[in-house]
Amino acid sequence: MSFAFDKLTDLLELPLFPLWEWVILGIIGAIAYRLAFASVGDMYSDGMISGRTAGSVLHWILRFVYFVVMWAVVNGAIRVGMWLLKNWILIGTMATWIGLLLLFSRINMQYRKQIREI
Q1: Helices (H), the chain
Q2: Which residue, 4, 63, 79, is CA-closest to 29?
Q3: CA-to-CA distance for 29 and 16, rounded, in angstroms?
Q4: Which of 1, 4, 72, 89 could disulfide-pair with 60, CB 3.0 to 4.6 Å?
Q5: CA 59/CA 75 separation, integer angstroms
Q6: CA atoms of 89 and 31, how far apart (whole Å)
Q7: Which of 21, 35, 38 is nearest to 65 (CA)?
């Protein structure tokens, strides 16, 4: 199962410098291991599973699922962050225009309110 896990997770990459990718994937792998270990241990304690083979297979399946979910979240966050850094001028311009539109609409509502009260 370890071989299959390694081959499947080798395909998952992050859009970063290789050293940072290695560190982040190592941390994700360690967290996935701990979560799978705790989950399978709880299942043994609750009597849901018994036997070494069942625990091992379930551990590797859960570990893979945890790893892929965490990788997807981190990958998405990195890609969004990189996009924001690359397009900060566009984002700043859009935020300014939205702020100005909100300000002008607020001023317009106050002006109309004053006209109605007269």
Answers
A1: 2-10, 18-46, 52-86, 88-117
A2: 63
A3: 17
A4: 1
A5: 24
A6: 36
A7: 35
Q: Which two tokens stand for residue 81?
A: 């962050």
From first to last of the 118 residues of the chain, give the pLDDT tens digit: 777 877 777 778 888 888 999 999 999 999 999 999 999 999 999 988 888 898 999 999 999 999 999 999 999 999 999 999 999 999 999 999 999 999 999 999 998 888 887 6
Closest CA to 25 of 7, 38, 12, 8: 12
Which residues, at least 6 apart from 28, have a Cβ–Cβ distance to it below 8 Å? Answer: 67, 70, 71, 74
Task: Measure Cα distances from 62 to 39, 56, 72, 75 in Å.
Answer: 8, 10, 15, 20
Amino acid found at 114: Q
Predicted structure pTM score: 0.73
- Rounded Cα distance, 33 and 67, in Å: 8
